[in-house]
Amino acid sequence: MRLPGRPSTFRRYIVAAFLLTLTFYLLPKSDTIAFLVGRKQGANKHPIDPLIRTAENEFAAKLSKSTQTLAAAAAAYRKRRGRHPPPGFDKWYEFATERDAIIVEDFWDQIYHDLEPFWGVPPARIRKDALKFDMRVQIRNGKVSTGSDWWWTQIWLKMIQTVEHLLPDMDLALNPMDEPRMMVPWEDIDEYIKKAANTKRIVNVESVVSSFSTQMLEAPQEDHSDVPPVQWEHDKHYWLIARRGCPPDSPARQAEVITDFDKPPSIASPFSLTHMKDGYVANYTLSTDFCHQPDLQGLEGIFVEPISVSTTASLIPVFGGSKLSRNNDILLPAPIYWSEEERFFGTEAAATPWASKHTSAIWRGVATGGRNRENNWRAFQRHRFAAMNSPRLLAQAVAAAQTEQPPPNFALPDKQYPLPAAARADLPGWIAKTTDIALTELACGNTGFSPSCDYTAPYFTPVKGVPMATQFTHKYLPDIDGNSFSGRYLGFLRSTSVPIKATLFREWHDARLVAWKHFVPMDGRFGDWWGILGYFLGGGGGGEKGRGEEGRDSVGEGIAEAGREWAAKVLRKEDMSVYVLRLLLEYGRVIDDKREVLGWVGDLRDEF
Ligand SMILES: *[C@@H]1O[C@H](CO)[C@@H](O)[C@H](O)[C@H]1NC(C)=O
């Protein structure tokens, strides 16, 4: 009876395959990976372990995409971008390879994210908007210059000088402020992106124009009368501005607006579940977006009251060093990273060997984040982080827990976090032993940013700053946003310590770093902080006997090393130049009247 048997075996196979496929399809991606790498791990494994394994795989996959020839780089470009590379791509490739840059097309994703909407704006309009902006640099005949002596402009000028000889003429509007400048409504961006999509195609090689137009900017008496003036908004309640960058059905747009910040904020929230798994950040990029996290409106200074707000709903070409996920500013490497100031880098001490460091976490900083006041400081991220690491405030919180009195601006560890015995027995004592975290100035918004204020005096006493060089003698370096991104991040990555990063800001380098491989990601509510500390530091005795569980010291060392090695390969000043050159070639194309047919097709025309 072979014949009837055959189809039934076959059918069984098909059904099994179908069910298996369905299972993988229905499981969230991280589950699928955990499923694939094995359930053999046993019940005692820490939930951070699979995140680190996934990161290893993600990084290996990224590296495997690196290209070794110009033709391969151009092919990778066309595949990922849907257009020909811009004119000058061959020079860019030469510039990059002469500097030993690793070429993985994904590394430049941010550029395309930032510039794509501008393909929906007429080129002449973009050029005019740039010319009307106060702070500018201009490039003419391969030379960059500026009329501005603002220190950031001067640093950006030096950065662009490294690539000026390869650039077409252009004017660049630069943001002189900490805070980003554009928040175009989601609906408008959607329109721009749809228009941009209509221009996206691989043009016939014969029709491609391979040099930039030169006449566009030669109009000294240019008439700007058809450009309506840009409207700048100054509403200090930035959440009301920020959320318009989110989709209409997103929690940020739907949630009630918080206006009373004069009480303990709500820390635990189901919104973080979207980017977390078993209590830890599983999708770092998503964790830095705020559209699914409306509770952040009461947990971050930038949403509550930034120092200054000057934002527009118009899409104009302003370049800046960092932005929130939904701002439309065009990112350049931040001036701080180019200038390599000692206070942000602490260069030599950054190489302190792991074994000679303290097994502890250190953080010092000014209570920035915005303008904190008596009735809003509880909503500021640095105040929150400092408070939850203050042994005194923790002891008060533990005592008050009996009476259900909430701590002023943080939450005690959630049950889901497997803390070491030492921490369970004595949380304030464990924190005192494993961390050294405090504010250096309270930056009181009502008194010209004075170092201490009445309203925070019961909670915080400002302490002395610690030089970067000394901070690097500790193994773990939490990094918390200030008024905008944290300028010490690059110094942390380049060091032999582990950065523990919580941020809402996007930067030029995001696509080249892998969370849990090069740094440890932390949720913006900091609820995972206790678990992260427990995982790496254990009982906090540096492995000494009788002090509770040992931490995963070698795992921490591995992340510190991987971050340092990778930063030395892809976060050098050379890499910033390579990024800026790619960005400005693309910008030069998108502002060119012939942009739709401009391209580099040298690989398709000539034989290689
Ligand atoms: C992480 O979230 C982003 C959205 O920000 C999404 O596009 C991406 O697929 C997610 N990654 C994973 C591994 O789930």
Automatic annotation (TrEMBL):
At the top level, the lineage of the source is Eukaryota
Concerning SMART domains, the annotation shows:
CAP10
Coiled-coil segments, which residues? none
Every copy of the Glycosyl transferase CAP10 domain together lies at 280-594
Q: What is this protein called?
A: Glycosyltransferase family 90 protein
Q: What is the species listed in this Swiss-Prot or TrEMBL entry?
A: Chaetomium fimeti
Provide the taxonomic classification: Eukaryota, Fungi, Dikarya, Ascomycota, Pezizomycotina
